TrEMBL record:
Domain GST C-terminal residues, every copy: 103-224
InterPro entries: Glutathione-S-Trfase_C-like, Glutathione-S-Trfase_C_sf, Glutathione_S-Trfase, Glutathione_S-Trfase_N, GST_C, Thioredoxin-like_sf
One GO process term, biological-process aspect: glutathione metabolic process
Family in the record: Belongs to the GST superfamily.
Ranges that cross the membrane: none
Protein name as annotated: Glutathione S-transferase
Known partners and oligomeric status: Homodimer.
Organism of this sequence: Ostrinia furnacalis (Asian corn borer)
UniProtKB keywords: Transferase
Gene: gst
GO molecular function, one term: glutathione transferase activity
Amino acid sequence: MSIDLYYTAGSAPCRLVLLVAAALNLELNLKPLDLRAGEQLTPEFLQLNPQHTVPTIIDDGFSLNPPHTVPTIVDDGFSLWESRAISRYLVNKYGGAALYPEDPKARALVDQRLDFDLGTLYPRFATYFYPQVLAGAPADEALLKMLEEALKFLDTFLEGQKYAAGSELTLADLSLVATVSTIDAAGISIESYQSVNKWFTLVKSTAPKYDEANGQGVEMFRAFVAQLKAKTEL
């Protein structure tokens, strides 16, 4: 079994895949892509992933030269993108029942948290924050309030819960922690969300190889943001 992961370390979706691989004790062949250089737009990469997004996976029988910035997983000739689809695939194929329980109600709760991250929390962060650092736009207070509302939702979900979907670490936690750590690294305070803070501390200490799989990429993202902010302040 050999899986290539095309990714960029600062990306929260890419870090989710790294967290899942760490939890499953899977060794991935890491293929970093430079998105700003347009490596995800080469004809070779577009054959693997027409959406030219990261992360993406691919098998060891196919390689890109040069590698592209979209994380893609290709396993046994199988190419797949979208981080949560990749995560489900990995646990389904390589044994991650604890991460993605088979009980219908337990799995539905994990799916709801994943969908909340995908459809609400991360998009609200991205819509508020990225225009500021990438285009020099002023902070939009209305968009900030939308993000704060999403964080309040998460805080409510976590009240009285050890983890995001119950008493055990699941895919929901790995997805959400990639997003929350990114929000935190962007300088957006999460201190007022007590349940989120308690959970965040727990996941950082219990997710397998957290620092290697997520922490290092978070610091790269933090440095990237600082660099962009310095340019806009000149």
